[in-house]
């Protein structure tokens, strides 16, 4: 069973809908899943493939989200198989690395996590290659100059968010370089300058970068590189003089963690593009970037003094134009934290007896930031906009190091017969100097806003036993075929539940017309099958966002008009729900 964390930038709390394929992957025995607190060690096994062939001697790392301990690493064998043993119960991030290979990008905003006992299948693809020569105007080779390929968009058109989206090599005595292991995407290639790390090694590092073919960043050629593809890119080196950007970071000091990271990102059409980073010693006098070309930039600092807390400065916009920029002062401020508790509410229904309870170790609480809420005239950098945590043995959880913004929270769990009932926050309000009252707010329907240094507490996530599941088939007349992009929606039929965002569900219909929905609160629903168009919401997480109220209302009206009602009882597995398709572009109707 895999656990996917949706990177939907907003703040509503949602539960995972785990389909039958995900459930079938679990290899744990029911006896091992009876409740919180299990300490039995287990393993995660899997295989790594590239183009259907095994990748041997790949390095596999398993990182637990339940602790700050070191990652576990193992190699794959000749068949591409691996096993990470001795793992405590929990959720893990599994990563593969192999020379010349990369993990393919997807158009999904979800990251997959795994439980102990899960089988894993990882796919890799051969990395691309960019090679060529760096020559002077008189065709002389430029020897030992650093050449860097920086991704500006992946194959899905998404911009990378880290400086690690770059690779570099030095030219040889013929001026030839070869950069391999590139993920598919679009790149700019440049020679000279400090690259992404701000440390100089030779005479060219203080020059302004020369981009292929022989230009500045504004007119640089963009090179598309596919899986296993090799592109020839020559650079005619200009040798332009670069500028310096310098300043000081104000931050708390810790002798055990002395280094402050400073980042510089070039802005292209107000969006961060090519990036650099350097460091300042917390007890030192400042930082400096060299080899900076003219243009608009964002500069910011981040510092983790070792206390589990991270400090980040607000991004500052600067302009480099024909001269050095000095005297920049950045103040690193503590980021926000969000804390709460996870509560389990058992059912007294006879049908729910002896059902598996959620394990706290295998429950994931994830929070993501909504970039759409940022001021339009203030460029944003994707810093610390997400966090994940698993509740401890008492159900308490803390999400740390969150930047200013609006957020959404997701709750992911595996127990089939449980559902997300509510998410609330209890806050104290003063009624007089001597007395205070507590106020409970339903935060599932509203945005959650964080400011720098906020310490939000009092969140309560309630999982209730009694969840039902619904599976079935879309029936199509003999003379018709099931159209693509068909989804099934489930919306509350009771008027008093019409605004309960946690009772809205969506799932894609399979090619054979089958569908499945899990973790459904018992009650009355309208079911609707429809062909979706571009821009319509097709996931439970996006459907539940506070900004999706109009979309929910529209779908609910369509479902009411279709008049296909279903009643789900506690712990019921309804497996024969049928929705007839009356029109290839319409909605499914029923009784």
Shape: globular
Could you tell me the number of beta strands? 45
- Give the termini distance in whole angstroms: 36 Å
CATH architecture classification name of the largest domain: Sandwich
Beta content comes to over 45%
Radius of gyration: 27 Å
Helix and strand content put the structural class at mainly beta
* CATH class (first level) name of the largest domain: Mainly Beta
Helix run count: 3
In short:
This protein is mainly beta. The protein contains 3 helices and 45 strands.
Task: Provide keyphrases for this structure.
591 residues, Immunoglobulin-like, 5 domains, 6-stranded antiparallel β-sheet, 5-stranded antiparallel β-sheet, 48% strand
What do you see in this structure?
With 591 residues, the chain is mainly beta. It is globular. The strands form ten sheets. Strands 22, 23, 25, 26, 27 and 29 form a six-stranded antiparallel beta sheet that branches. It contains three helices and 45 strands. The protein has five domains: 2-125, Immunoglobulin-like (Sandwich), CATH 2.60.40.10; 128-236, Immunoglobulin-like, CATH 2.60.40.1120; 243-334, Immunoglobulins (Immunoglobulin-like), CATH 2.60.40.10; 342-465, no CATH class; 468-580, Carboxypeptidase-like, regulatory domain (Immunoglobulin-like), CATH 2.60.40.1120.
List the topology elements.
Elements: E1 2-6, E2 14-15, H1 20-24, E3 42-50, E4 53-54, E5 59-64, E6 72-75, E7 81-87, E8 91-97, E9 101-102, E10 110-115, E11 119-126, E12 128-135, E13 146-154, E14 166-170, E15 176-182, E16 185-191, E17 210-211, E18 223-225, E19 230-232, E20 235-236, E21 243-250, E22 259-268, E23 271-281, E24 287-292, E25 295-303, E26 311-312, E27 316-320, E28 325-331, E29 333-334, E30 336-345, E31 364-370, E32 386-389, E33 396-402, E34 405-412, E35 418-430, E36 436-442, E37 448-450, E38 455-465, E39 468-475, E40 486-492, E41 505-508, E42 514-520, E43 523-531, H2 540-543, H3 549-562, E44 565-568, E45 573-580
Parallel strand pairs: 2-34, 3-11, 12-19, 12-20, 21-28, 30-38, 39-45
Antiparallel strand pairs: 1-10, 3-4, 3-7, 5-6, 5-8, 8-10, 9-11, 12-15, 13-14, 13-16, 16-17, 16-18, 21-24, 22-23, 22-25, 25-26, 25-27, 26-29, 30-33, 31-32, 31-34, 34-37, 35-36, 35-38, 39-42, 40-41, 40-43, 43-44
